[in-house]
Each structure stands twice: as C-alpha cells, then as structure tokens.
Amino acid sequence: MAMLNYQNWPNNSGNEQYLALKEVLERAPAQVCLDQACDKKTIPMQSGRSINLRRWTNPAINLSQTQVTEGVTPTARTLGYTDYTGQMVRYAELFSVSRYDYDLHPYDAVKGCTDVMVTTVASDRERIRYNAAVGGNNVIYNSAAISSRATVNGTITLGRIQTAIRSIRASKGDPFNQAEGGQNKEGTSPVEAAYYMYAHTDAEPDLRALPGFKTVAEYPSGKGMPFEFGAIQNVRIFTTAELVPFANAGASSSTLISTGTSGTSSGSADVYPFIICAKHFLTSITLEGKGARGFGNAKARVLDEADKSDPTNERIYISFDWYDLCLITAQEWGYRIECGVTRNP
Questions:
Q1: Backbone phi, then psi, for 101, in 5-degree steps?
Q2: Is 2 helix (H, G, I), strand (E, B) or coil?
Q3: pTM (predicted TM-score)
Q4: pLDDT in tens, the chain (345 residues)
C-alpha cells in the first residue's frame, strides 16, 4: 500500500516551513537609573538653545569681619555665584522597513521597530546622563598609589569609597536618603542616610565581598529603588549594564576583566567607573512638551506615504526625536572612582 510521506512545502523544496508564532519573545530592557540622581528642569519652547544655571555661593566665615563695633558699619560682602552652562541638543533615532516586509512578512516589523525604538531611546537618554557624570573633575583610583587610568590594577575597596564620601561631606553635600531605622525583623539591619553610587553589573561580586555590604533584601523595608543592588555604610549602590567601562584602559593584569582578551589571558584591564554623588550633583533639562509630545518635546512618527524622494512608497520610516541636556551642577558633590573588576571572583 502506498503512503504519502511528509515533504517540505512547496513540493521538493529545500526550505522547510515553520509556524510563525505571532507573539515575539521578550528582549533585554533599557536599564535607566542615573536619571533618579538628577535635578530635573523643564524649559519652555522658543527660549533659546544655550542654558545657564546659577547657584549662589556661601561666603567663608570670618567672625572678625562680622563682629560689630559700636557705631561702625560692618564691611559689606559681595554676593558670589557659580554658573553652569550647556546647550540643548536634538537627538533622533530612525528605523526603516521595506514595503515587501511590511506587506508580506508574518511579523509586524513596524510595531517591532516602534517597541525597540522606545527601549533604544531610553538607553540613549541614560547614556547622555552617564556621559555627563563621568566627565566630572574629581577622580580617584583603586589605590592611593595609583594616579592615572592607565595604571589601574585593582578592585574597589571600602577605603576608596569613604575617601570620596569624605570629600563630598566636607563640601556639605546632602545625602539622598534619610536613615532607615531598624525593625524587629530577622535578617535585617538599619540603613544609614546615604549617598548614591552607580556601577556596572560586572562589579557586583566585588561589591558583595566588601565588609558590611547588605543587599536590598536586608533593608528593614525589604524594598529598594529600580536597579538598587544594596548598601554599604552610608552609600546605596545601583548597578546597571548601561554604565560601560573603559575597555583595556588600565594596567596589564591576569586577574581583572580584560575585554581585549575575552577573559582568557592576561592583558590590559578594563577600567570601570564607580560614580558617587550627593543631591544636586547632576541636572537634566528637557524642552517643554504639549499633549502627546511627551518628555523633551519628543515626537514619534510613522512615515508611510509616497513622496518625491520615494514615489512608489518602497519604505516605511519610524522616527523619534527629542531635546535633551544633562550637566554637572556641583563638581564638589560628585566623585568618580576608577577600578578594575575581578575576572574570576
């Protein structure tokens, strides 16, 4: 008896057919956390591109100057200030889909572009804030004996963290959080009033190894902010893969992560920035939007019409543009510690 055997479709084709499941798989999200360290400002449209932010400065204490002698007018002081300037910049992302893909492909590429666009823009905005934060003037390295990025040869230490905190506190930088008092809850302990530290996820094993480190689960509340990893003494730590290291920028090392050698042999260590800051260290500025325009006067568009540049409508474009600016507005309230990360913790 003859039997019909399974064949690829169309008959005798070398291309086997598959069922296309319309529900696409999850992908990596944007990791946005530096924005929470920023003071946020919004400016109206048509108010100029260049931005100036001013802070009045406190004068030095001089009791001999302020002590009043009877009948004598004290010496007048001059009001001091510090200005911080930057320029609003317009950013854009653009995706393209062919007409064939749009009309015939079982997957909705335009919707896919729109979804990926949201993630991409969020990562772009985080990188803008990262670029501002790593541009600070105050930098120390993994050891007091190290004086340049090219000679970084060790991991983060509690002493280096507290060296940065000491300078911030001496400049009267305010912590972001108030102390979180203890509770009668097993396995938890109080959290001090804390400054924020941002680091790459690669550094998590080194951070866990620091004396006194506690995870978010050990907070009395058992809760943390997005991407909060834990706390140590007076620092709350956030980790994200968006805080990229300086590849192969450190000293030769067989124990630290080295991108150029894929972690298999000794090479120049990747240098990771650990950003520590107090309140008001960073300020982000967006352009006032209206209605659906959203943050930063953002505009999302799906362009699907024939025009002079594309008479037969061969392509669909998906675009997104926005205005943004992030700048340091208190150099003395932020520090960058540059360290390596253990390759095999």
A1: -60, -45
A2: coil
A3: 0.87
A4: 566 555 666 666 667 677 778 788 899 999 999 999 999 999 888 888 999 999 999 988 888 777 888 888 888 888 999 999 999 999 999 999 898 888 888 888 888 888 999 899 999 999 999 999 999 999 999 999 999 999 999 999 999 999 999 999 999 999 998 766 555 555 557 678 899 999 999 999 999 999 999 999 888 877 888 999 999 999 999 999 999 999 999 999 889 999 865 444 457 999 999 999 999 999 999 988 754 445 667 778 888 888 888 888 888 899 999 999 999 999 999 999 999 999 998
Residue spans of alpha helices (H) in 67-108:
99-104
What are the domain boundaries of the chain? 139-282+330-339
Whole-angstrom distance, CA of residue 35 vs CA of residue 243: 13
Distance CA 98, CA 317 (A): 9
